Amino acid sequence: MACGRVDGDWTGRSVQLAGWVHRRRDKGGVKFILLRDRTGLVQLAFEPEHTPQRVMEAASSLNPEDVLWIRGDVESRPPEAVNPDMPTGAVEIRVREMEVLASSDPLPILVAIPPGEDLPSEELRLRHRVLDLRRPELQRNFVVRHLATNAARAALARQGFLEVETPFLTRRTPEGARDYLVPSRIHHGEFYALPQSPQLYKQLLMVSGFDRYFQIARCLRDEDLRADRQPEFTQIDVEMAFVGEDDVFAACEQMLVDMYAVTLDRAIPVPFPRMSWAEAMESYGTDKPDLRIEWRIHDLSEVLGGRGFGIIDGALADGGRARGIVVPGGGSLSRSRLDAINDMARAAGARGALWLKCTDDGYSGPAARAVDETAGARLQAEYGLSAGDLLVLVAGPDSESSPALDVLRRQLGTELGAAGEGEHWIWVTDFPLFEADPETGAPAASHHPFTMPVDVTAAELLAEPFAVRSRAYDLVLNGTELASGSIRCHVPELQRAILEVLGMTAEQVDARFGFLLEAFRYGVPPHGGFALGLDRLIAMMVGVSSLRDVIAFPKTTAARGLMEGAPSAVEADLLADLGLRLADAGGADGD
RNA sequence: GGGGCUGUAGCUCAGUUUGGUUAGAGUGCCGGUCUGUCACACCGGAGGUCGCGGGUUCGAGUCCCGUCAGCCCCGCCA
């Protein structure tokens, strides 16, 4: 029997339970213990009338987190003792037999944290992860994770996908993130890389004829961490042959529908709307817009330009634009908040932001000088700026104004409570095939080098690489990128052109991707797919902001495992086996 | 690599602004009382490397420098 499943139907029956002592309430002559297992809590009642003397005495010395086995009778509680806040609060177990299976030392952190009490520090929670994971709140997260993962697996299997595992010891690929490396003992001086994702393998599986593949795959990237980034994380990795975007989106949407239905008993509205990357950047300043905030970015160059306002006219003369957001009710912001707008924009890389308050008496603020009667009338008629509203403006090249306006939109939207409820799923499509390397200006693959370009010949692609769109897409939920993928390039001359634009010599291409391109020579089906960040999705499902709350044994922001103490130094002879020597290791082994 | 916040009892925190007698509270822990509790209540007790190292000072939890750890962010990362 499970603690959380005992209810009125069991009244009068004898049950055996095993679990942990959650809380103890000892009244002297009568004692109560909350017994906990994965399913929940139930109250054990120890009374002289029903409980043997020996058991009563043993119950007096129980400690929190002792492990008990008991046998007793399920009984309704006296009416005045019913606890309506507890799922099993109508009943209790009259204990007749008890055995302490294991006792617990005093706890470094509490499992039964009193209401209103703060959680222990993240550091202690991670160090004593076993205890932290006993808390019902965290256990719930892993139940959701299990149910959602099962639902995804079932949904994909039902759609004809085949689950295939791919190697963990793989070859380094210079693209993308830093690799975790594993030295080879047999081949001194050579290294395996742990996979950043199964990307190349899943494309090879398409060539192998597994026309619908999936894997719930661990991915590893040796980069600095954030609340939403762990060095190892899990993707639902999917690839399909003979498909276009519609097929991929439908497969993903059906999977998510099932995951939400099974896990949270909730319907999500499919198909998800689509938005081009260009539209996302133009109207929201980001490739992952949070549509809970309705405000959009407008191009106000024409309305506000040419009125002798230096900041705007200067930006326009340099080929930039003046773009802004109408913030309804933003006139209520204090002067210090308005000053902060400028700082936020500068922190985001713009030269600054201007603001304009609209009142019944006219306009005020740094941008007021750009607003004459005509401009004011147009702002009102075309952009809905009215008394009590604020206009936030950023002038300059889009590359500076977009990130700044994105930050301002989200920050002010949150501050003014403009974010609506609900979940806004969108597919963002038609990403640029290349983006300029911020330092060199050289083209770099914006998704990855095997993405299909949109409607372009190899010659056009070589002539104007930055103008080419790709068949890459992201799935965005409330401003968070949950999945991304593409239709892959299976056309040899386009593929060659892409690699040429990326500046790779034939030798480099051969060394890095030779095995993929060779496979493509023997009949490659058109294919595409996506990878969905499972940890992030589960975090959103259960409403937590840190991935650490949905990963059983996560790493700290410095990529340490505090519980097990990873990483750790290793013995010199192990290094010698691998043909390695530490560069800064002094002493006998040093140079 | 850079910026910010935090570090005081097992745990959560106050005390640091303005250096000054014996560093406090709640909770947990230990002992006791209690026959219907549910964060049980009540009485008593133990418990401190103020993260670590150095400096300033007659005197440092408090000021300065360095360092370690955790968290958040930028860079980085799809």
Relevant terms:
591 residues; alpha+beta; eight-stranded mixed beta sheet; five-stranded mixed barrel; disordered C terminus; RNA-binding
List the helices and strands and how they pair.
Blueprint: E1 14-26, E2 31-37, E3 40-46, H1 53-60, E4 67-76, E5 91-102, H2 122-127, H3 129-132, H4 136-158, E6 162-163, E7 181-183, E8 191-193, H5 199-207, E9 212-220, E10 232-241, H6 245-264, E11 274-276, H7 277-284, E12 297-299, H8 301-304, H9 310-317, E13 321-327, H10 335-347, E14 354-359, E15 362-364, H11 373-383, E16 390-396, H12 398-415, E17 425-429, E18 434-436, E19 443-445, H13 458-463, E20 472-477, E21 480-487, H14 492-501, H15 506-520, E22 527-533, H16 534-542, H17 572-577
Helix pairs in contact: 4-6, 4-16, 10-12
The chain binds one RNA strand of 78 nucleotides through strand 1, strand 2 and helix 2.
Percent in strands: 15-25%
Q: Spatial order of the strands in the main sheet?
A: 6-9-10-22-21-20-17-11
pLDDT < 50 runs, ≥5 residues: 585-591
Number of helices: 17
Main beta-sheet annotation: 8 strands, mixed
The outline comes out as: globular
The end-to-end span amounts to 65 Å
**Mean pLDDT across all amino acids:** 93
Topology, number of strands: 22
Query: Which percent bin holds the helix content?
Result: 25-40%
Secondary structure category: alpha+beta
Q: Tell me the radius of gyration.
A: 30 Å
